[in-house]
Write a structure and sequence with these properties.
Helix content: 25-40%
CATH architecture of the largest domain: Orthogonal Bundle
Largest sheet: 7 strands, antiparallel
GO molecular function, one term: protein serine/threonine kinase activity
Keywords: ATP-binding, Kinase, Nucleotide-binding, Serine/threonine-protein kinase, Transferase
Distance between the termini: 26 Å
Shape: globular
CATH class of the largest domain: Mainly Alpha
GO biological process, one term: signal transduction
Enzyme class: transferase
Organism: Coccolithus braarudii
CATH topology of the largest domain: Transferase(Phosphotransferase), domain 1
Length: 301
């Protein structure tokens, strides 16, 4: 479920022809939430996201409303967002709990540019220079996340939002792994199968409680799939399991270049090969990716 996205810009819910009866307030009365279909920004297994407006400043925000029965996911996202301070991570503005109605309200900045997914779908793939700027911004966000002990585990174009200035922001940390300290031993390994199969690293698909996987390296695989989709307008394969996907089996034999469109530069193809390396230890970190030939010197704004 995307958090804080909007398909349009310059929204004015006061003049959108929405009956006043379809508005409701946050528990503290400070935000007026648009309750009709117009105000619905997204929905998922854990709740919904709606547009809202501060009653005094008239600032627009996004409010994720979840039942207290799934408070574990809400707490994980709130913990992650509260710890992070990056221009390319959706900003947490506040949290309110209504014990009577048993709902949690997570208030975040509103990204009026919508989802990166929609931008890719509209264009059928982005020019390398456009993809380069978005990707550098997402890498910058992920570098900060990993340094803060936060691993997203559900990176996909639907969870990357665009703001008023067409800058990318990582959102939806409901499935994140959040650590106080990341140790050098194997205790940091994850084995929970989370996220979307099409963006999941091969080791995630086969992980067990005894083997586990490195969530940081798995995030980098997901970014590789995102970069491929930005440049080509499609996915390289349906899942990273050779027994279930012939296209992935071909990648294992010949490398990711076998799936790359001919117009891609050799620099970005080389980067894709390091992000989508089947061996997790061989994948680039966010900083190594930012230092790659393709991204070296790329502007973040």
């Amino acid at each position: 479920m995307q958090a804080g996205s909007s398909g349009g810009s310059g929204l004015d819910i006061t003049s959108a022809g929405v009956p006043a009866s379809e508005f409701f307030l946050t528990p503290d009365g400070q935000y007026r939430i648009e309750g009709s279909e117009f105000g619905l920004l997204g929905s998922g297994a854990h709740g919904i996201v709606r547009i809202a407006q501060h009653v005094q400043t008239l600032e627009y925000v996004a409010v994720k409303i979840t039942p207290t029965s799934v408070v574990r996911s809400s707490c994980k996202e709130m913990t992650a967002l509260a710890r992070l301070s990056s221009a390319h991570v959706v900003q947490l503005l506040g949290v309110q709990v209504d014990m009577h109605d048993q709902k949690v309200y997570v208030i975040m900045e509103l990204c009026k540019g919508g989802e990166l997914f929609d931008r890719i779908a509209e264009c059928g793939g982005l020019a390398e220079e456009d993809a380069k700027r978005y990707f550098a911004q997402v890498l910058s966000a992920l570098r900060h996340c990993h340094a803060s002990g936060i691993f997203h585990r559900d990176l996909k174009p639907e969870n990357i939002l665009l703001d008023d200035d067409d800058n990318a922001k990582v959102a939806d940390f409901g499935l994140a792994a959040v650590y106080q300290h990341v140790k050098d031993d194997a205790s940091f390994l994850q084995h929970t199968k989370v996220g979307s199969v099409m963006y999941a690293a091969p080791e995630v698909l086969v992980s067990t409680a005894s083997s586990g996987y490195d969530a940081a390296r798995a995030d980098m695989w997901s970014l590789g799939i995102i970069l491929f989709s930005m440049l080509s307008g499609t996915l390289p394969f349906e899942c990273a399991a050779a027994s279930r996907c012939k296209r992935y089996a071909a990648v294992l034999r010949q490398g990711i270049q076998v799936m790359c469109p001919e117009h891609l530069s050799s620099q970005v193809t080389s980067l894709l090969a390091r992000l989508l390396h089947p061996e997790p230890s061989q994948r680039f970190t966010p900083q190594q990716a930012l230092d790659s030939d393709w991204l070296r010197g790329a502007a973040l704004s």
